[in-house]
Amino acid sequence: MRTMWKGAVNFGLINVPIKMFTATESKNISFKSLHKECHTPIKQKRFCQNCDKEVEYTDIVKGYEYQKDSYVIIEDEDLEAIPGEKSKTIDIVEFVKLEQIDPVYFDKSYYLAPEDTGKKAYKLLVSALEQTGKIAIAKVVIRSRESLVALRIYEEILIMETMHYPDEIRKSKEVPGANYDINLSENEVAMAKQLIEGLATDFEPEKYTDNYRTQLLEIIESKVQGKEITHVKEKPNTGVIDLMEALQASLDMVKKEKIEDVTSKSKKRSKKTG
Q1: Where is the Ku domain (predicted)?
Q2: In this structure, what CATH number is given to the domain that contains residue 141?
Q3: Less Cβ crowding at N or C end of the chain, within 10 Å?
Q4: 55 occurs within a structural domain
């Protein structure tokens, strides 16, 4: 892993030197834009429409559009003048329970590893968080942005979750079509709850895979090998299904899958003891 940031966690009067690493990585398959005629990659140019010419990177400045087509220029000196802009500390503000924070607030995850000189202080913070069952809420400036973050324990090390500020989260009431009033029968609710209970289990992330990415990689590999691809189109489901019928069919399917699962496990045990 490549260190992307170095600093320290301020825990009261305790300073914990740390290194930060990106905790997640995108496995999305990306495509390049090619010229249809010759399959040459298309280059994106920095072009000024007003001057009708390509612009060098050194001739580009930061501009904020305060009204339509009107900009104010922000210099590097303006950003450096903001208190804390060059801060290299993660300042803990308070400690809370993780279950008090809705997942909508979380953005991206980063591992925090101790520097050699701060291993004891790091271990102290990790142990204190583990034993109190709390997480830390802190602030940190990274890449000219002050972020609200949560520090918590993940697999016995510190992980930092960047968070959205409350004013960055859109109100659910603003979602078109989400606010409506409709009556549900007791039987419908009871069957839906039964379906949820039937599918309830412990979370095991290892059993989930990106099937779309797997199939896309298979298509890419087949094309690389020069094989012909056969595309099977699914027929759209245009039928309207009664809600109660759908619930019952779903429950029957869950029961069948559970019976098959139990039978399969029983056969495996028989082979081991046989």
Answers
A1: 52-180
A2: 2.40.290.10
A3: C
A4: no
Instruction: Kindly state whether residue 77 falls inside one of the protein's structural domains.
Output: no
* Residuewise pLDDT in 10s, the chain (274 residues): 889 999 999 988 889 999 999 999 888 888 889 999 999 999 888 999 899 999 998 999 999 999 998 999 988 888 777 766 567 899 999 999 999 999 999 999 999 999 999 999 999 999 999 999 999 999 998 877 889 999 999 999 999 999 999 999 999 888 888 878 888 888 888 988 988 888 888 888 888 888 888 888 888 888 888 877 766 666 666 555 677 888 788 888 888 877 777 677 666 666 666 5
> Is residue 148 domain-resident?
yes
pTM value is: 0.74
**Where in the sequence is the domain holding 152, given as residue range(s)?**
5-27+82-168
Q: How many residues does the chain have?
A: 274
Nearest C-alpha neighbor of 152 from the set 139, 140, 135, 137: 135
Give CA–CA dist 243/196, Å, rounded: 15
Whether residue 255 is found in the same domain as residue 122: no
